[in-house]
Amino acid sequence: MKSPRITHLSWGKMTVDGMGSGKDFKLWPGGGREWNWNETNTQHVPGIQPIDVEELLTYGSEEIVLSRGMLLALHTCLETIKLLETNGIKFHLAETKQASELYNQLAEDGKAVGGLFHSTC
User: Fold this and answer.
1) CATH fold for the domain made of 6-31+40-118
2) What is the pLDDT of residue 22?
3) What is the DSSP letter of 21?
């Protein structure tokens, strides 16, 4: 299954093929959904938690792109990095615009890519 393409990204707004528009997204091969930080009590610091990426793994992501936000304010917990490394998952940390470009390229290349995207700070 192909990962959905990010077709628009601007401050506070993303558009994803087949999902419409929203602020933040979780994407994986064959689908995705809006990323609601309140579900896991995610904060900019300490940042992306293991539970935030577990859904991406459940849906078959073999490579993951984690955005840092437009101003690089979103961190990633050390436990999240350890989880990905332990499971042999290649991952990338990048500013959101760079992250979306990398994600789209990996998806176009047919990779089973997933990602977490934060469209503001």
Assistant:
1) Hypothetical Protein Mth938; Chain: A, (3.40.1230)
2) 97
3) E
